Records
---
Amino acid sequence: MEHRKTYIRHTIPYQKYEIVIEGPVSPSHLQTLQMHPELDAFRRPKDQHEALIEIAGLPEGRIILARENDVIIGYVTFHYPDELERWSQGHMPDLIELGAVEVANAYRSMKLGSRMISTAFEDSQMEKYIVFTTEYYWHWDLKSSGLSVWDYRKMMEKLMKTVDMVWYATDDPEICSHPANCLMVRIGKEVPIESEEQFDRIRFQQRFMY
């Protein structure tokens, strides 16, 4: 499957400078940038920077980022699901995971998360894909945000709805392990019905549910 990647760039005035939202970015471009020290939700900023470079180099991988000058202050990742997760079982070429969304604390009032995600879906780039995200409460920054689990869940749902992602049911044990966890999905306009049906079989594997 050919993965079309059309580079898109937006700018937002910010104090004396501007914030650039751009992507999908190349590994070589990422290597010229540095990570904001507050981007440590998943791993140390240096290690996460290396992970972003690796994802950007994948055929299907996409990194959309927000930066101030040469400092990355936020990013969104898209890639195939991890081989250890159920979502990879069908080896579907048109099933892409919206993996991580992170914004440095100092910039969280600027709606950079929704701006980056919206940029990823511009120019009909994602219409050939089923894009999904798994939201687990243990990944959420409840401490810094001051939000309850349920308020954070509402915030994440609102964020994903900016690109028409909707809640989907599943019997996945990890998602079912806590009521705040959820699966959100967007099915592109060019996705064949066969892929939708295959995704349904992946979502529900416990056939005898009462």
---
Amino acid sequence: MTDYHSTSVVDPKIPLSDMSPLELFLLTQFFQSDLEAEGLFLYAEQSIDHMPTVLVGALRQAYADSLAFESQILPAVRLWLDEVSDADADSETDFDLDAHLNTYPYEVILQDIVRRSPTLSYLTVEVAHTCTKMRPDGFGGSATLIHAEGIEFQSTSGLLEMAISALKLQDCPAAG
């Protein structure tokens, strides 16, 4: 059996003062984290958890504590909380915002942090795709640049496709 991994790193570290309680709660669900002097270091040793299991009461509290922050994620979290309104505060459930967002929730959160931050002008998310058995679909990577105005993504396969297309155009004889 082949195991696929997508190790990831968010850079630079994020000052705790730049995050709302909800953002801190969710980012530490999607990623592993270490609190360092410069801020929170986010990473994933295996892969980013796109649907973490969360304690409903803790999520409700983080949401309530974050209403004063300008945030794109708040409406989506509110809709999700409405869907689980009958859930006990001590219950755990899979946190899935796919139906409410058209991108990864962590990208939206990171962009909000950059927009409000007095010190960060961007964040990057670098991902390395690997697997435990040699397979052509198990390798590669991607880089995402998140800044106040946008989220830019490039995969290694996309970069190679562009380079190969450019090479093929150079090899074509000029129309005469």
---
Amino acid sequence: MLAHRSNEKEILDLGPGNYTAEEFTHCQKMLFRINQILGTFHGTVNVLKKSGKKAQVMDVGCGAGLFILNLSRHFPKMTFHGIDISSEAIDMANHEKSVFTSDTSNVKFEKMAEPELTFDENSVDIILATMVCHHMGNEEIIAFFKQALRTTKDKVIINDLHRNPIAYWFYYLFSPILFRNRLITYDGLISIKRGFIRQELITLLEQAGMKHYQVKWCFPFRWRIIIWKK
């Protein structure tokens, strides 16, 4: 079952007609909480600490924007630009920004008309993509790597999932008890099946022509990939 990446679609990928607004809102908030608990958020903070204090960060597939809104607390001199192809995600992101308890003047959100990155070359310092690549097919990922590296001046930071039987069965047993949201429990299992093993990531990076990169396994069952411009 986990020998190869799955092509199954997640409910979220099927569009708003397949879930309620309440399910979507709860799911987005829980996903950020999961990223906090599993260390994805704090790991990203540690990487950004090594960047320029006034760096421009673009979050691709920003969802409800909670990731970069909370990053802005740690890095008030950086600017954050969240983009997503989902109207409901950007609407929620702008709402979360309006009620956020810290200054958010350095954060903006924008709906994209198409999934491709069509920004000017070297137009931002850092591209961030958290739990985005597993939604893509291999050819889309290769194209994204190329587009992201073209857009950034410095580096691309990617957080995603390790496809592993232990992770799958642990999540299968405990996610219905812990989360009680089908967008998290059902989609989460598909996400793991759409995740990556190390060699797959290396192959995709090399097929995209990436020369300077790091693929780091992080507990529990996740990857942090950094691609440097040079």
